[in-house]
Amino acid sequence: MAMPANEIEALIKAALPDAQVTIEDLAGDGDHYAATVVSAMFRGKSRVQQHQIVYAALRGRMGGELHALALQTSAPE
Amino acid sequence: MANPVFERIQADITANPVMLYMKGTAMFPQCGFSARVVQILSHMGVPFKTANVLEDAELRDGIKEFSSWPTVPQLYVKGEFVGGCDIVTEMFQSGELKATLEEKGVPVAGE
Fold first, then answer.
1. Is this prediction's ipTM beyond 0.90?
2. What are the two backbone dihedrals, phi and then psi, of residue B62, each rounded to the nearest 5 degrees?
3. pLDDT (tens digit, 0 to 9) for every residue of chain A, 77 residues total?
4. Among A30, B29, B33, B67, which residue has the fewest nearby CB atoms (within 10 Å)?
5. Which domains does chain B have, with CATH numbers?
6. Residue in B68, B86, B90 closest to A52 by CB
7. Residue A60 and residue B71: Cβ atoms within 8 Å?
8. Of A48, A52, A68, the CB nearest to B33
9. What global pTM score does this model have?
10. How far apart are CA B3 and CA B17, in angstroms?
11. Which distant-in-sequence residues (6+ apart) come within 8 Å of B68 by Cβ?
């Protein structure tokens, strides 16, 4: 029940082609990650909406295969 | 036909100004993320009601569909979804959580 970081990155980039993604494995168990995602798609959206875009990109794995993903999202300056 | 549990959720978040769907209870949180939100609300002296999704499988799935948010905990203030653990933490640290609560007429005792 784990997910490699590069798969998370690939999924996010598939949905957000311009995204700059950095992923940190918090616990070394492939289940608890922190990710920062910067994309112009987030501009003008609330934090909740931004996170929902990332969760949608992960196509249902969030909360199942992926137990925890601490997200930091922002639009480019 | 909307998900039957939605009515239950709607009633809860309307009846309780600050409603937290979590794993475990405020006294015995069973997940670090849920515990953190309980800590934040308690630190701010904000009265809140909790629902333990671990005791209610229908609620556990229903709440995720209701807010289209895949994880628990989920915090609602005056019927509006505020966020999960990392958003509530971020808002607390920036002071935005206190502002949001006060703006919605929820008294905040702590800081």
1. no
2. -60, -40
3. 578 999 999 999 999 999 999 999 988 888 889 999 999 999 999 999 999 999 999 988 887 778 788 899 999 98
4. A30
5. 4-103 (3.40.30.10)
6. B68
7. no
8. A68
9. 0.88
10. 23
11. A52
